[in-house]
Amino acid sequence: MLDIKNLHAGIDGKEILHGVDLHVGTGEVHAIMGPNGSGKSTLANVLAGRPRFEVTAGSVLFEGKDLLSMKPEDRAREGVFLAMQYPVEIPGVNNIYFLKAALNAIRKNRSEEELDAMEFLQLAREKMKLVDLDESFMNRGVNEGFSGGEKKRNEIFQMAVLDPKLAILDETDSGLDIDALKIVANGVNTLRSEKHSVLVITHYQRLLKYLIPDYVHVLADGRIVKSGGKELAEELEQKGYEWIEQEVAAAR
Amino acid sequence: MSSTIEQLANQEYKYGFVTDIEADVAPPGLNEDIVRLISAKKNEPEWMLEWRLKALRHWFTMKEPTWANVRYNEIDYQAIRYYSAPKQIKKLNSLDEVDPELRKTFDKLGISLEEQKRMSGVAVDAVFDSVSVATTFQAELAKLGIIFCSFSEAVQKHPDLIRKYLGSVVPYTDNFFATLNSAVFSDGSFCYIPKGVRCPMELSTYFRINSAGTGQFERTLIVADEGAYVSYLEGCTAPMRDENQLHAAVVELVALDSATIKYSTVQNWYPGDKEGKGGIYNFVTKRGKAFKNAKVSWTQVETGSAITWKYPSCILQGDNSVGEFYSVAVTANYQQADTGTKMIHIGKNTRSTIVSKGISAGHGQNSYRGMVKIMKSAENARNYSQCDSLLLGDKCGAHTFPYIEVRNSTAVMEHEASTSKIGEDQLFYCQQRGITPEDAVSMIVSGFCREVFRELPMEFAVEAQKLLGVSLEGSVG
Question: Which end of chain A has the smaller Cβ count within 10 Å, N or C?
Fold first, then answer.
């Protein structure tokens, strides 16, 4: 599904990713962990095509297509979804209207019929239950006046509606209490299938208790320095990131 | 005998080309002869001519105002032609003959084919003939005693009403541009809703017979008698071109006791090209007077014109009267807008609401200028003002000039203002969900304007939303 080769990227002329290699197969859940400043969010944003980030070398293939040459909206239409670390507010733009426009843009790209208001509402109601959002949220502005937890749940709700092939969760767990965390994990678990892949970016292991990854990678100083199974996450939780940094330093 | 000849000679000199009544175009320049010519062409009664002349004489004593936050080349008022006969628009045989650029815009706005034909002067099928539609409406209105006709027609047919209300809200001495209009106004609309009648449809110039071109100096007078209600629509979303660069319109609204007048405008005059060349200078005076328990409500969507100078205002004369102003002003490329409102509270328990949304893109400059004045007599007056500015890009500007004058300590005033920029983050968020930057901008802008759009009649609101998208096209990316 996703093939990242020797990816170098940065922001404002400063390189942050120094050659990332990663393969995510269809139906797999990968977790990327790492200390602050290791480049986790840069990776997420580069994959989604955020304008300020520059790719200086390397390649990313998504289902065999060159992802890096696509515009952000085309990546989304191809099935890449990024649950943002800091979802923005768009005042006055109705949540449900926004999401309907998004879904229909994506459906159009897949040559599927656009949903009408009633069909969409039915779908939205169904998915809303997943993340325990009240229906009144739908008629508010996009993220307007939402609490931090509500914004994150809204991201997962959007993901559930848009049904992406690859979902990237950029620190979706940060700032969530345990109940919200379970709700988010549950939302993502529902998406899990042999057709969907998930890339979970997180600093802590706690989300991974409920959202169990197939693979765990440690990103440090812009490179993936260690990969393993779900046990790796537990090990990191116990030992912290220092031992990995030491291991990496020793290997150099 | 010789003195009579002399008199006649003088007279002929004095009235110059009035004799030349068949001429289609007056020579450039402005003087009493020109005003007499205009009046004669319209076959106006003496009192109307006198009123025009008083205005003209007053205008000569006035100076063009310079306080607005707009820049433009000096206007040579003596180089302008103040009269030309309404031109017969050349009939086209099919839409294929219409300028393809114009058609593209029509399509983007979602204007129906029949409507496109009507607006671009293509001969239409008898069934859809706007005149026949208009006739039907006219008949229906007449049953209710509603008068809706061109201003010129009203001068002929309803002189008492015109004499009573003309200049009662915007006197001919009011301001430089209104005074100019008073002297030379070409035509416009007149509307009278009798006591207790609720006008059953949105009135629009579209349904008015004889609306041959709006003209450069339009004058509109709407009178809602006691307890009457009317909603009036001005303009349309289709791009309007005009050879005349200077436009100075006047609109007067009179809402008698317990009457309501709702006046909605979509202004889309030619804004000039991308470099800022050409474009209409739009200097408009709009004012409504609300008597006891009456309400005057202005809603405007201003997307066109190179210069917009416009302050639809409310004089809240009667006790418990209500004034409202909802505005969206867009300036893109090199457009400049200085617009806002005046709310003059005179009666007791008067209330006013101001919601102004300014959107600037490109090199556009957008100023909100508003005055709220609470007179000594206005016990328990209330005002709520909200002025929001949205910036697209970093070469445009947004300015706010609120003036507040309170002479009664029981007044309650609220003022909120905000300036925001369409952020890269907002755009990216939309794009990441599969929405193109163009659609994202139009979505964000619509959200920003929502409070104003919901004041517009339904159909108008949908068109206005699309219009914003078209106006701001190319402002991002």
Answer: C
pTM here is 0.78
Contacts of B443 in chain A (CB under 8 A): 90, 93, 98, 101
- Asked if B443 lies within 8 A of A93 by C-beta distance, the reply is yes
pLDDT band at residue B100 under the 50/70/90 scheme: low
Put simply, the chain A residues between 48 and 67 with a CB less than 8 A from any chain B CB are 48-52
The minimum CA-CA distance between B437 and chain A, rounded to whole Å, is 8
Residue with tokens 């937890």: A149
Q: ipTM of the predicted structure?
A: 0.94
- The pLDDT value recorded for residue B347 is 97
Among partner residues A81, A82, A93, which is closest to B444 by beta-carbon distance?
A: A93
Residues A173-182, buried b or exposed e (16+ Cβ, 10 A)?
Answer: beebeeebbb
Weakest-pLDDT range from B127-131, B321-325, B341-345, B371-375? B127-131
Secondary structure (H, E, C), chain A: CEEEEEEEEEECCEEEEEEEEEEECCCCEEEEECCCCCCHHHHHHHHHCCCCEEEEEEEEEECCEEHHHCCHHHHHHHCEEEECCCCCCEEEEEHHHHHHHHHHHHHHHCCCCCCCHHHHHHHHHHHHHHCCCCHHHHHCEECCCCCHHHHHHHHHHHHHHHCCCEEEEECCCCCCCHHHHHHHHHHHHHHCECCEEEEEEECCCHHHHCCCCCEEEEEECCEEEEEECHHHHHHHHHHCCHHHHHHHHHHC
CB contact under 8 A, B423 and A52: no
**In chain B, which residues have their Cβ closer than 8 Å to the Cβ of A46?**
none
CA distances from B427 to A124, A205, B272, B393, B441 (A): 23, 32, 28, 12, 7
What pLDDT does A214 receive? 94
What are the start-end ranges of the E strands in B151-259?
189-193, 203-204, 219-224, 229-234, 246-247, 250-255
